[in-house]
Amino acid sequence: MEIEIFTLCDHAQDFNGKLVIVGTFDSISSSVYPFTHAACSLAGRLRFSEKESGVHEFKIKLIDEEGIELYPAIEGNIDVSKSVANYSTINFAINLGNLEFKKPGKYAIELYIDNEWQKGLPINVIKQ
Fold first, then answer.
1. What is the rounded CA–CA span in Å between residue 102 and residue 88?
2. CB-based contacts of 14: which residues, under 8 Å, 6+ apart?
3. Residues 6 or more apart from 1 whose CB is under 8 A from it?
4. What pTM does this model have?
C-alpha cells in the first residue's frame, strides 16, 4: 500500500473518484485556550496493489504530545476490490467538527492500516 495523499484541510470531498482538497494546513493558532476549531477535513488517497485485494481495517487517531487520544478513534474497513489495472485507489474525506485543543502544543493525526502505524500528520497548535 502507498499513501499518495494524507492531509488536513479546510474542506475535502470525493467527487466521482476525484479527490477535491481545499486549503491544506498543519498549524492552528488561537489567543484563548481551550480553543475549539469549528470545522476541517482529513483527506487521503491510498493505492493498493492487486496483491493487496481484500478487506483491510483502518483506524485514525487524534493524539496529543503524550500520545493520549483526544477523541475516540475513527475505525472501519476498506474493501479493496480487484481492478482491471494492477492497482486500486481509495479516496477518503472525513469531516471533523468542533475539535477542542486544551492547550498549545504538538498534536498529530495517525493512520493505521491492519493495526500497523502507516503515517503521522503533525498539527502545531500555537498561542498567538
1. 39
2. 20, 91, 92, 93
3. 46, 47, 48, 49, 52, 56, 113, 118
4. 0.91
- Partners of 55 in the β-ladder: 79
Identify which of 43, 32, 61 has the alpha carbon closest to the alpha carbon of residue 125. Answer: 32
Residue 36 C-alpha cell reads as 475549539
Q: What is the domain range of residue 16? A: 2-127
Instruction: Render pLDDT for 6-33 as a digit per residue (tens, 0 to 9).
Output: 999 999 999 999 999 999 999 999 999 9
Q: What CATH number corresponds to the domain at position 55?
A: 2.60.40.1930
Write 102-107 long-range contacts (CB < 8 A, 24+).
Answer: 102/33, 102/34, 103/33, 103/34, 104/33, 105/64, 105/65, 106/64, 106/65, 107/62, 107/63, 107/64, 107/65, 107/70
Q: Which residues contact 78 (CB under 8 A, 6 or more apart)?
A: 46, 55, 56, 57, 58, 90, 113
Q: Identify the CA nearest to 114 among candidates 17, 42, 46, 43.
A: 46
Query: What domain count does the chain have?
Result: 1
